[in-house]
Every structure is written in structure tokens, then in C-alpha cells.
Design brief:
The chain is an alpha/beta fold. It contains 7 helices and 11 strands. The strands form 2 sheets. A 6-stranded mixed sheet has the order 6-5-7-8-11-10, sandwiched between helices. Strands 1-2-3-4-9 form a 5-stranded antiparallel sheet, with no helix packed on it. The longest helix is centred in the middle third of the chain and has 13 residues.
Length: about 250
Amino acid sequence: DLTPVATEHTICKCCKSPAPLLGVVDFNKNCEDRRRPPMPLSGIPIYYYACRRCGMIFTNAFDSFTKEDFATHIYNAGYGQVDPDYASSRPAGNAQFVAAAFKTSPDISILDYGGGNGALAAHLRSAGFSDVTTFDPFVSAHAERPNRQFDVITSFEVLEHSNTPAHTLDEITGFLKPEGLLIFSTLLIPADIAAIGVAWWYIAPRNGHVTLYTGTALQMMFGARGLRCGSKDSNIHAAWKKIPECARHFIRD
């Protein structure tokens, strides 16, 4: 009895258009596969879909997961093997970028959304920024939800981990002041994805990469929330309703 474990089509999490199957990978596929021998196969198939309209790529495999499920199966003691830059080198580099961008405005309020262990915020405080908050519902030390809005929100390597991208964007933008700026990173889907398919290194379920974006998908999702969105490059992006004074030197409206 050959019973499918995934449907041939589903509904896009961005634009609600039909999204056919793109391909299937083993759960243990991760971003470090390109730099070291792959992990042993888990035998767990993870199916990804690609929207025909906006180009978003995503899987529904983790849609029923709770925070505890993610902590058990993905963000566990072995996570450092598939994302060795998570703990220190990435937050240090990102903090340097943010500090340089806002060096003339040390009094702005900053929220690091999905900030993990709080390292980025610690670096910014050391650089002279006094009002920096970390929020990450998957890290108990930083799981308390802020009750205010911020001038600047940073969210590095977060959106690809969300299995509910619309909800995540609603939450992030809810923390943003009307004259505020969101700076975030997520690697955009390459133009030749039809040829690469699920072999693209960033499609990595063991890393928790469950939703991948095109520039079109980002524009559509932020636009639906009344925000403009622009990209510095294929990885660094920004979104805003009205550009704050502290950001006018590097964002063109």
C-alpha cells in the first residue's frame, strides 16, 4: 500500500496561491553539509513546496510542533554542530554592523528579536548603546515578551526558522515604532532555484530552516502590513513605515 506522506500541492504561507511539491530531503540535511561530510541519514523525509506566484519555499512538516518539540528535535544539544556560528561569531559580527550603522545615535532603543543567548545585545551595550533588549521565546533567559515598542529592531537569521511567517511578522512589526526600522537577515532564494531544487544548501531542516523567501515574497508580506521593504544584498534587508531620523543616512525612502 503506497500511501503518500505529503500532498502534491498545498497553499502558500505568503500569498495563499497553489504551491506544488519542490522535492524531499532527509531531516539531517543541514547547512554544514557543504563544509564537512554529511550527517548520517535519519530516515525522516521532509517535503518542501514552492509557490508558483511569490516563489516562497516552505515545509509543513513542523507545523504541529510546539516550542518543546523544536527544543527536543532541532534546538537541542547537537544544534551547535549544524550552526557553529550561532553562539558567538555571528552575533559579534552583526553587532559590529549595527553599531557602525547607528554610532551617532547611542540613545536609541533596540530590540534583538530572536536574539538567542543575548550575545548581540551584550556587544551593543559594550559599544555604548544603553537601551538594548533581547527577546527569544526559545531561550528561557530571554523569553519575557517586551511590553513596548522600539526605534530599531534587529532580527538576524530568524525568519527562515518560522513555520508561521505571517504570525512572526505580525509580532515583530508590533514591536516597531511608527518611525522605526527593522533590520533583518535571511538568504534570498537564488534565481536558478529551479535547476538547484532542494539541493540548495540553505534548505536545511536540521537547522530549522522551514521557510525560505524571495524578494517578492518579502515585499508582499511586509506590504500587507503597511511596511516598505528593501534589500542591501541577498542576505541583509530592512523594513519600515516611516524612516526614523537615526536611519536616514543609510536608508533611502
